[in-house]
Amino acid sequence: MNVNRRHFLLFLGATAGSLAAVSWDNNLKSKVLATASSRLGFQPVKYPLPLAVEELPVSQQIANYGHYEVQDDLVLPEGFFYDVIAVWGDRVGDSRFGYNNDYLSLVETAPNEGYLTVNFEYISGGVWMQTYPLVIGEELPFAELIALAKPGEEEDEAEFIIDAFSLKDGDVTKEKIIRISREGLIDQGLGVISVKRNADGKWERTYSEADRRVTGISGLDNRAQALKSTGAAVAVFNKPQKLGYEDGLGDRIIGTFQNCAGGTTPWGTVLSAEENFQDQVPEAVMADGSSLDPGETPFFISAKDFNGRANVFGLAGNKYGWMVEIDPANPNDYGTKHTWLGRYRHEAFGIRAEGGKNLAVYSGCDRRGGHLYKFVSSGKVFNPQDKTNSRLFEEGTLYGAKLYPNGIGEWIPLNPNTLVNPVSPRQVVGGKVILPNSDRTIGGVMEVETEEQLQPLRAQFKTLGDLYQGDSTLETQGAILIDAHFAASAVGVTCTARPEDTIVNSDGTLFIAFTSGSSGSDGGADKQIFVGTNGETEYEYGWIMKLEEDDNDPAALSFTWSMLATGGEVAHGGAGFANPDNLTLDKKGNLWVVTDMSTSKHNQPVPTRTDENGQALTGSDLTGVFGNNSLWYIPLSGEDVGKIYPFAIGPMECECTGLTFDNDNSSLFLAIQHPGEKNGMRQNMAAESREFELLATDGTAFKQQRRVPLGSNWPSGEVNQPPLPGIVAIRRVNGRGIV
Length: 739
Description:
The protein has a domain at 3-64. It is 13% helix and 28% strand. It contains twelve helices and 37 strands. It has a nine-stranded antiparallel β-sheet with strand order 18-19-20-21-22-28-27-26-25, with no helix packed on it. It is globular and about 70 Å long.
């Protein structure tokens, strides 16, 4: 399929049936929205539910939204189309383009050319196994291992779980696990591909010598491709006598995986965030920061998923969960993990690099109850474009944010002298906090649900230096950084609502996307800070926060904060979207955001807004009304400042991620992650009708019939073709800027 041609035909109206699902009904078009569209430069796409920016009468909202057809495509405003640049399985250097592409960085080395650095986050087990033979062209022993699965409890799916690392070399089962795990880890990590814009304005790959993959097993077969490390945790990696597991590799690290969000420095390097590393290796550590045994995270496989891919290779858990820096222009650079930036489920990389000031880096731990962090370098930036600035990552201080309900906050240092003052379970939704185990001889963590459970920790340990062990101050500091999330909870850093991205504006303002305020097995968010549009706690739909450092100083130890936008239905005071995730700023300073609703909730029917007991549905039970994940535009200046407009809607069962602009604002790069994740490959264009009870903007309830494809064939759009994660460049038909 020629993607360009198909979207150009849509723009011209050549396929009226499809066009009707993308654009407004002309007979019912709002004059107010049309006027706004002329200012915006685009006409917002039709979202599945009414929005405030339309300013339509309730009767017209009900007429417009009584029927809706979901598309298995990237739906864009009229006059826009996209080019597919690369998809899973394409050649990259001596390897392939990985799976579930996430963060994108474009470093332009000359006008109209440069390097795209791409993160590959995780494997959607079921669809990956279904489509692997079709895409990669070889068979793997999935069925043979799934046949060994044993039924779980009640309705749990049968799983085969084993500590493959403990099996003897040459064991038949171990060899099968190695084959599958190796391929899965190859499809994770990051990649660099060279691109150039041709005379027609299309970005194309040029396949330069710098193109390369850094995978989950880089360095396993070729020592020269192992990753490097800097900072205090290196002292822990290199110490001869550890309390826990020893991988025998010193400060050398095999690979990177679960690479989710990231950022680009002013000097042209890229930082890649290792997020849900606990799916592959143990997260908890011993009191000295050394790893638990690989068997703590065993290999497992079922018909729908598989994880623990690092288990069979005996990878040490304390070497994952970091920020990885890579220079895309250097073909010999396979990445450096900077441990002063902390180890946790990293999302985001917001950077302030101003001449004469300390370097500041903002990041978040994407878990329920995760924290917001700031690293401040010991040295100062001289020239923000100088590549020697990378040395500033090698020494500094990591802080966690303490937020107060009155809109102020402070940064708490994570160092040996910081007093232990643990977060109370009474402070957070769900009433649970995960803290370092008070029995330091066995390490790990403990779940705390009562004040009484906190007493041993408070009684035995005065400071973080008492809680963590080392033969030197540097080793103790390294252990704290390795266990940063749990150490932060131990000193009272605010538990937040899944901080998934941080972006810094040119004036130093920090924007943070908090995806969801619901609680879970990892804990929950502070009840006084993360409240819904009507004061609710356990608020599912997320927030975008604005944070400003005192005196506009990157190294400030205090700040002010406020909520810029709150997710949720317009009728309940929300912005119209649910679960904000990645953020970016265009060259005019406007904010763009994509959403990250759980795949299992996409378009799930809501025929009535009450349960069988007559209680009103809330939270994720209503997420289905928001349809597919989407992309939104938020002007930060001008007549439409603060309004929120839907710019694009993703294909079926996908997440749109990694949004970034080129230097002249004429191309918007976007990653389409895990299309078809729930239902897999769409068979024979299957679809079904589902019923929703929606709310007009004033709260009036009405019914919608929604046609929903089952699975995905994106990007080909052809019958019974596999869905492929891939990256695209969005541009206008007329070649002008996006906005």
